[in-house]
Design brief:
With 289 residues, the protein is α/β, with parallel strands linked by helices. It is built from 11 helices and 11 strands. Helix content is 37%, strand content 27%. The strands form 2 sheets. Strands 3-6-7-2-8-1-9-10-11 form a 9-stranded mixed beta sheet, sandwiched between helices. It has a two-stranded antiparallel ribbon with strand order 4-5. Helix 5 runs parallel beside helix 6. The longest helix has 19 residues. It is elongated and about 70 Å long.
Length: 289
């Protein structure tokens, strides 16, 4: 079984559109994973049925038992996150601001503050319109710990893939270089970098590749919208050669990307020309490496 992770240094490079296309080409030989839990959107192209859903808890949140609270205000004094305001003459916990450190509970003289598991979102297992299963998640509003939710999603996907003897796990990672990206890369066999020929695109490609080097992962790069800035495209190609990164393909700017998304389709399902063939060739290359 081969785990392929698709990431980008910044948003808007076409990462999710390409990942969804790879998922369609792989069909039921793959488990699809959306690890962009902070802004999950691959479901728009794969039409999952949201068959199984389970709540995810991570960290803690304080709760004040108002029946026993003496309203001394010591909890509010020590809270460095300003998470315990006075509402209707009572000290209450703001669930968005609370970081779950537990200091308020430790200093409460009447022991009326309890620390409960914090709800962080949902993880789901769905059947997609391509006959494959998809493991994805929805991070709760104001919740952190997205890295832990990504780990949960990936672990579930690996278990399903092992049981089903699947050939591939195809992962849509988060943009950037933060905790969710690190969690997405764990266990990867091959990483696809998607970039664009802009100053920010090239800069963020370098940043995310520095992260990859710490994992010693094999990587290939797709330069999307490569014809928009020939100078930066050439600079990116020079960088790929210097770093021994596989240059998978140059994809031209094509409005069919946008039209496909508008119609809820992948580009290989929507396009009938050269772009479709290029993406099919990319998948052949990364699936055999």
């Amino acid at each position: 079984m081969k785990e392929i992770v698709v990431i980008s240094g910044k948003g808007g490079t076409g990462k999710t559109s390409l990942t969804a296309s790879f998922a369609e080409l792989a069909g039921d030989t793959a488990i699809v994973v959306d690890c962009d839990v902070d802004a999950a959107d691959m479901y728009l192209l794969l039409d999952p049925d949201f068959g199984k859903s389970e709540d995810f808890y991570s960290g803690y949140i304080a709760k004040i038992n108002q029946d026993d609270c003496m309203q001394c205000g010591k909890c509010a004094e020590v809270c460095r996150f300003d998470a315990i305001p006075i509402v209707n003459n009572k000290y209450v916990v703001d669930p968005i601001a609370c970081e779950g450190c537990g200091y308020c509970a430790r200093i409460c003289p009447t022991e009326t503050i309890e620390m409960n598991d914090a709800y962080s979102g949902k993880w789901l297992i769905s059947e997609t319109k391509f006959g494959s299963q998809m493991v994805h998640a929805q991070l709760g509003i104001g919740s952190d710990n997205s890295g832990k939710l990504v780990t949960k999603v990936k672990n579930e996907a690996k278990e399903i893939a092992d049981k089903g003897n699947k050939n591939f796990i195809i992962v849509d990672g988060s943009p950037g270089i933060g905790c969710p990206v690190v969690s997405s890369l764990s266990g990867a066999d091959f990483v696809v970098l998607v970039t664009e020929p802009s100053v920010s695109g090239f800069h963020d490609l370098k940043r995310v590749y520095e992260l990859l080097k710490t994992f010693r992962l094999q990587a290939g790069c797709i330069i999307n919208k490569s014809d928009l800035n020939a100078g930066i495209t050439n600079d990116i190609k020079d960088f790929l050669e210097e770093e021994n990164i596989m240059h998978l393909a140059d994809l031209p700017y094509d409005e069919n990307f946008t039209k496909a998304m508008t119609n809820g389709q992948t580009i290989v399902n929507f396009d009938t020309g050269e772009l479709k063939e290029k993406i099919k060739n990319i998948w052949k290359e990364i699936s055999k490496n």
